[in-house]
Design brief:
Layout (H helix, E strand, L loop, with lengths): L3 E4 L8 E4 L10 H11 L5 H10 L5 H7 L5 H12 L5 H8 L8 H11 L3 E6 L3 H15 L10 E4 H4 L6 H10 L7 E5 L2 H9 L3 E5 L5 H9 L2
Parallel strand pairs: 2-3, 2-5, 3-4, 5-6
Antiparallel strand pairs: 1-6
Helix pairs in contact: 1-5
Length: 224
């Protein structure tokens, strides 16, 4: 089964590759964080929390503010505490927030390294300080690599850039800072809106099913 879809991809023109992190390099499961929050919530509000989650109300502005570095960890945790009626310390909330971060399969790391021998490689992730710290811990523990920046030419994170996907400006910054030709650059992400936005600034796009190694399938049959 093919777990990827190509958007404006020209196989023989790919010289640069930009990887998303969550669902692409590191496996993620948002339900684990939802469950962890529910365990920390005042029992009287758990049904209400479920309703908020089902309606998408949890996608509040403070999530985006945190992702682009507008608010601190402490302020974000307080927003979570108030929104979901959490009876928990900041440390407990951080642990629950990180519950979604799973493993980083070694075969993905091996292929990124191999691609780096023939292509310029980058990471572009919508993330935050707490998640990237834990993801880096997982990278170190499972693969013996100190930092994602050691895996690729440069890693770009939304909370440091003060921009997020699918904003056109985040792709443009990466392209401009590294003198990339968009038409020679493949962007890999599990979010279709992010792929479409990347296409909008001239990048090639590979949309993959989260956690299912679609990009490994793509490269194993086309480039490697």
């Amino acid at each position: 089964m093919k777990n990827f879809t190509e958007y404006q991809v020209s196989h023989n023109r790919i010289k640069n590759i930009i990887f998303d992190l969550g669902g692409v390099v590191i496996n993620i499961d948002w339900q684990l964080t939802v469950d962890a929050f529910q365990q920390l919530a005042d029992p009287a509000y758990r049904d209400q929390n479920e309703d908020l989650i089902q309606k998408g109300t949890y996608k509040a502005q403070f999530f985006e503010d945190y992702e682009v570095g507008k608010i601190s960890d402490t302020v974000f945790f307080q927003h979570l505490r108030e929104t979901f009626h959490l009876q928990a310390t900041n440390a407990q909330i951080a642990q629950a927030w990180n519950a979604l971060l799973q493993n980083i399969p070694q075969e993905r790391i091996a292929l990124i390294k191999k691609l780096g021998e023939t292509h310029r490689t980058f990471i572009l992730s919508n993330t935050n300080a707490v998640h990237i710290a834990e993801a880096t811990n997982i990278l170190q523990r499972e693969n013996g690599i100190a930092d994602f920046a050691d895996l690729v030419e440069k890693a770009y994170y939304s909370h440091i850039m003060h921009k997020r996907k699918p904003w056109a400006s985040i792709y443009q910054q990466l392209v401009d800072e590294n003198n990339l030709k968009p038409e020679e650059t493949l962007f890999i992400d599990d979010g279709l809106a992010n792929i479409e936005a990347a296409n909008g600034v001239g990048l090639q796009g590979l949309h993959v099913v989260a956690n299912l190694d679609g990009w490994l399938q793509f490269f194993q049959t086309t480039l490697v």
